[in-house]
Amino acid sequence: MMELVSNLWSIPLIVIIPLITAVIVNAIYDKEVIKYISIASALITLGISIISPYGYHWFTGHPAFDPNTFTFTFDPGIPAFRLSLEFVYGPIQQIMIVISSLILVFCVILATVGLTKRQGPYMATIFLLFASAAIIIMVNDLYHLWIAVEIGSLIVVGVVVASGTSISHKAALKYAFFSAISGAGLAVALALLLGITGFANVSDIIRIMNTVGISGMEKILYISFGFFILAWMYAGGLAPIHPLKSEVYGASYPHATAVLQAQSKLMLVAIGIIMLRIFGTLPFIKEVMIFLSVITMILGVVLALIQIDFRWIIAYLIISHSGLVTLGIALGTKDGIIGGVFQAVNDIIYMSVLLFCCEALYYFGGATSTKNSFGIARKSPWLCAAVLLGAFAAAGMPPFNGFQSEIILIQASLNSGLPEIAVIILMVSITTLIALLRAIYRIFLKPPEVEVLEAKIPKAINFGIWLFIILTIIIGVYPDIALRFIIPAVEGGFLP
Amino acid sequence: MIELSSSFIIMGYVMVIAITVGAIAALLQKDLIRAAFLSGAESIALAFFFQALLAPDLGLTQAIVGTVLLPGIIILGIFKTRRTEEE
Amino acid sequence: MIEVTIQLLGFIAAALLIVIGIAGMVFLDNMIKKIIAFTLLSDGVNLLLVAIGYIEGGVVPILLPGMSITEFTMRAALVFPIGIVLTNIVIGVSTTAILVALVIMLYRRYGTLKASVILKGERR
Amino acid sequence: MTSIATMYDKLKKYLDNFIIGRGYTNIMTGYITGELQFLIFIIILASLFRIFSFPLAIIILVLTGAAAIYFAPTIINIEKENSNELNRVLYWFLIYFAIIIAITIWGG
Predict the structure, then answer these.
(1) Which residues of chain A neighbour C83 with C-beta distances below 8 Å?
(2) Does B76 reside within a domain?
(3) Distance between CA atoms of A153 and C99, rounded to whole angstroms?
(4) What is the ipTM of this complex?
(5) Phi-psi bin for D37: left (phi > 0), alpha (psi -120 to 50), beta?
(6) What is the number of domains present in chain B?
(7) Tens digits of per-residue pLDDT, C57-96?
(8) Are C26 and D88 a contacting pair at CB < 8 A?
(9) Tell me, what CATH number does C12's domain have?
(10) Which chains touch D (3 or more CB pairs under 8 A)?
(11) Contact D83 C122 (CB under 8 A)
C-alpha cells in the first residue's frame, strides 16, 4: 500500500482533462483535428487512472479540523472534520475509472468512424458524461454527488438527442423531466442530512451520527433515505423508471450506450455504497433495497424476452443486470458488496461487447430487428462468433467473467440465508441467454429472408469487440485481476 | 427588537401567501405568457424571503434569474411554439 | 403551540412550493406549464435549503469590519446551503433551457404542446 | 369439481389469449417463455415473505398462485403497464416512494 497524500495530483486531472477536451472539441465543432484530440485525451485519461497512487484531494485546500486537539491538520490518517470538499481515489475508484475510460477510448474511436458531420458537440457530450461518472465514483461529499448526478443526467439528455430520431427526442424530454424531479429529491435528501448533522461530508455525517447521535431525528433520516432511494432508482433505471431508462439506452447510438451504461453502473455503485455507509444500520433499509433490485432484475429480463429489436433487448438486459449489481450492494455483507462491484465491472465489459456487435450490425443497413431474418452469419462469421461469446459471457457461463461475479453473488445470498435470491439470480442468467439467443438466431443464423448490404466492418470495431472478449476471458480465468482491487477496498471500509 | 422580529414574522406571512398565490395563479392561466410573468412575480416574493433568511446574495441572484432569465427563456419558447393552451 | 419563526414559515412555503410543483408536473397537460411547474419545484427546494441554513438571531454570513471571528462563527448563518442554492439556481436555468429546446423541437414535429400527444406511450 | 375437461378449457383459453387478435408471430416463443418465467419469479418472490412470518408466506404463496392463474396471461398486462408514458411512470414512481417511506418509518 502506497503512502496516502492529502492533495493527490491525479484526481483533478481525471476530471479536468475530459472537461477541457469537451470545451476545445466543442469550439472546433467540425474539423479533422477533433479525432486526434479526443483519442489522445481519452488515452491520457486512461494512463493517468492506471498509474495514479491512492489518496485524497481536498478541493478549496482547507485543512481538516481535529476536535480532540482543537488543531487543523492536513494528515488524512487522522479522523477529523473535513472542512473542504473531498474526493477519494482508492482501489474501487481505480478499477471502475480504468474500465470506464477504456470504454471511453473505444467509444470515441467508434464515434469518429461512424459519424462524419458535426463531431464536436457530440464528442463534448461524451467526454462530459465520462467526467460526471468519474466525479460520482470519486466523491466523498454529498454536494459534489448531487451536482454530478444533476449534470450527468443533463448530459445523458444531450447524448440521446444527438442520435437525432423522433424516438430519441421524446426519450430525452421524458428523461429530462425525470432528472428534474429526482435531482430535486436528491437536493432535499442532502438538505435533510445537512440539517440533522450540519455536515455534507459522508465520513463526517457518519461520525456525527455515531458520536453525537441524532436523537429525535430518526424520522427525518428515514425520509432522507426515501429521497436517496429515489435518486438511486433514477440513476440506474431501477424498477419503476425502467421504461424511460431502457428507452434512453435503446434510442442512442450503441457506442454511446456503452458509455451511458458504464456511467449508470458507476452511479449505482457510488450511490449504493454511500447509502449503505450512511443508512446501513437502520432497520428495513436492506430489505427495501433488495426488493427494488429483485423487481428490477425480474422485470428487465422478462421484458427483454418480448422485445423485437436487438437494441431494445440489450437495453432491457442492461437494466436487468443493473439489478444484479444493486442486489449485491443491497445484501450488505462483505461477500455481497464484493460480488456487486465485481458484477458492475464485468457487466460494463460484456455489455460493451454486445453493444459494439450491435454497432457493427449498422453497417449491414440497420439489420437489428428480429422480425426478419438476415442471415448475417454467412456474410460475417467472425461477428456471429463474437456476439455468441458476448451472449455466453452475459449469461454467466464458466470460462467468462460473468460466471465469476455471479457465483460470488449466489454464495453471498446463500450465506445471508436467502436461497430464493440465489434461484432468482440463476434464472435471470439463464433467461438472459434465452432472450439473446432468440435474437441472435433470427438475425445471424436463420436462412435469410431479406437481403442485406454487403458491408465491410471497420477495423476499429472488430478490434474493440475482440479486445473486450479477451478481457472477459482473462477476468473469467483469473478473477484476481479485478478482485485484488475490490476486496481490500471493501474490507478497508471503502476509503484508502 | 421585539417589534422588529414581529414585523419580520408578518412580512413572512405575506411572503408565504404571495409565493403560494403566485405559484397557483401561474399554473392556472390560459395565456402562457401571463403564466411566465406570474412565475416571475412569485420569484420576487421568493427573493424577499431569501433576504429575510439571511441570504442577501441569493436574494439578488434569485431576483435577476427568476424574473428576467427564466421567464425570458420560457417566453422565447412560447414565441417559437404557441401562446395559448389548447383545450 | 409551536412558536412561529421566519424559519418555520420558510419550511411551510418550501413545502407548499414543492407540492404545487410536483402536482403541476404530474397533472397539467401543457408542456410549457409543466416547465413552469418545474421552476416552482426547484424554487421550493432552494427555499428549503436556505431555511435549513438559517440561525435564529443570526447575522448575514459576511465578515464586516469590527466583528470578532468568534462572534461571527457563533452567529453567522450557514454558508454551505447558500453555496448549494447558488449552484441549484444555475442548474435550474440550464435544465429549463434544455427542456424548452426539446419542447420546441417536438412542437415542430407534432404541432401541439399537449403532453398527452407528444409524450404518448408506445408499445415496445 | 375440477375435471380434466374444465382444466383443458382453461388451458385452451389461456393459449388462445395469446393467439387471438395478435396472430402467430415469431415473438410468440418470447411471450410464452416470459409468461412462465414471470409466474415462477413471483411464486419465488412470494415465498420470500417467510423471512417475516411463515404462515403469511404460505397464504401469500397460495394467493399469488391463484391470482396468477386468474389474471393470465400476465405478460400482456405487464407489457401494457410497461408503457413509457411519462404520467404512468410518475404514478408508479410516487407509489413506490410512498411505500418505501411507509415501510421504513413503520419499521423504525
Answers:
(1) 143
(2) yes
(3) 13
(4) 0.87
(5) alpha
(6) 1
(7) 778 888 778 778 787 777 788 888 888 899 999 999 999 9
(8) no
(9) 1.10.287.3510
(10) A, C
(11) yes
